[in-house]
Structures are given as structure tokens and as C-alpha cells.
């Protein structure tokens, strides 16, 4: 009786497209109301004056102006103080 061995299945054939995250407008660039400044997963960059934070942590411009990035100290849940980047629109 002739027999052909089973070919099996491939397990590593899944791939998802990139999410296009990151900084969209850099410091010193002009921004208008509602424009996306940063797309991120989690709160890696904080929203400051002139910006709003959406539910998926995207930082939008709340007014027309110029984008500025600055570093500031933030207290974590454990009480430790760490530096984080704050995005503002001036």
C-alpha cells in the first residue's frame, strides 16, 4: 500500500502590519488645532499645556501654535521620582 508522509502545518506564517507609532511633529514645528503630535502605546510622553490626551494615549494639539518638548520629573506610584518628556503647544 503506497503512503505519502504528512506535510504538517506551518506555525510561523502570521504577521501583522506596523502600527505607525511615534512622534509625528517635532519641536519647533507649527501645529494646528486637533493635529496629532505623538502616537504611543502607554504614557511614554506626557501631555502638557495646549495638548490633549485621547483614550489610546495619542497626544493632540488643543490649540494652534508651536510644538515644544521638555523634560520634567514625575512621581511614580512607588514614590520614586523619574524624568519624563512633556509635550506642550506654545
Write the topology of this structure:
Elements lengths: L21 E2 L6 E2 L4 E4 L5 E3 L3 E3 L5 E3 L3 E11 L5 E9 L1
Parallel strand pairs: 4-8
Antiparallel strand pairs: 1-3, 2-7, 3-6, 5-6, 7-8
Folded structure, characterized:
The protein has 90 residues and is mainly β. The chain has one domain: RNA polymerase II/Efflux pump adaptor protein, barrel-sandwich hybrid domain (OB fold (Dihydrolipoamide Acetyltransferase, E2P)), CATH 2.40.50. It is built from no helices and 8 strands. The strands form 2 sheets. The protein has a 4-stranded antiparallel beta sheet, with no helix packed on it. A 4-stranded mixed beta sheet has the order 2-7-8-4, with no helix packed on it. The model has no long low-confidence stretch (mean pLDDT 93).
The average pLDDT score comes to 93
Helix content: under 10%
Query: How many individual β-strands?
Result: 8
The CATH architecture: Beta Barrel
* CATH-derived topology: OB fold (Dihydrolipoamide Acetyltransferase, E2P)
Helical segment count: 0
Kindly give the count of domains: 1
Widest sheet, order of strands: 1-3-6-5
Provide keyphrases for this structure.
4-stranded mixed beta sheet, 4-stranded antiparallel beta sheet, OB fold (Dihydrolipoamide Acetyltransferase, E2P), elongated, mainly beta, 41% strand, 90 residues, single chain, 0% helix
